[in-house]
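can u do me a favor
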């Protein structure tokens, strides 16, 4: 719709009308001492700009009139690649093909990624374990009461956290004493006498 209105031509007329209005106002006003150029100079500048605008319009029309790339004129493009004929020779029996096909189809239908549930040690389990294993009156490192054969990483950290919480619960009940001599040092635990 904007092409139908020819906005570029309308804009040119608007600029020209503004200049003409300005020039007319300069001619009507009395001449005073001012630094602005007089109306004759402005008229000459306007005429020069209009000539330049007309030359630009003609150059644009000439460019648009040239054959368009891809519609009236086609590019040379890259040279055709050299075709190398490669012949593959596959040797397979029908049974091998069917076996491979069934493996692929089974793999696609097997479902998505399954996250295996980890067996983490709960606080309740470690509470029972500590109550059972704390028999003597000697101080012992709380890590000594961890279950054996723990996987390194998450399982070990989970077991240590569960042991600490279970030890704190037993201390709250008044069944054990807990001490730690320095920050990040070993946590010692013993049955209360």
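np, heres the sequence
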């Amino acid at each position: 719709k904007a092409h139908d209105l020819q906005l570029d031509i309308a804009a040119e007329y608007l600029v020209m009308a503004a200049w003409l209005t300005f020039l007319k106002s300069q001619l009507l006003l009395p001449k005073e001492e001012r630094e602005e150029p007089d109306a004759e100079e402005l008229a000459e500048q306007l005429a020069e700009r209009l000539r330049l605008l007309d030359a630009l319009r003609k150059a644009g029309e000439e460019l648009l009139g040239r054959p368009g790339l891809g519609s009236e004129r086609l590019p040379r493009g890259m040279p055709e690649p050299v075709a190398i004929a490669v012949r593959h020779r596959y040797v397979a029996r029908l049974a091998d093909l069917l076996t491979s096909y069934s493996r692929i189809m089974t793999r696609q239908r097997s479902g998505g990624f399954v996250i295996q549930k980890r067996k983490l040690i709960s606080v309740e389990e470690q509470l029972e374990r500590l109550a059972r294993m704390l028999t003597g009156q000697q101080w012992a490192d709380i890590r000594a009461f961890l279950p054996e054969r723990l996987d390194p990483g998450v399982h070990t950290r989970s077991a240590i956290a569960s042991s600490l919480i279970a030890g704190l619960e037993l201390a709250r009940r008044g069944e054990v004493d807990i001490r730690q001599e320095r920050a990040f040092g070993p946590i010692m635990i013993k049955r209360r006498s």
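The beta strands are 140-141, 176-179, 188-191. hope that helps!!
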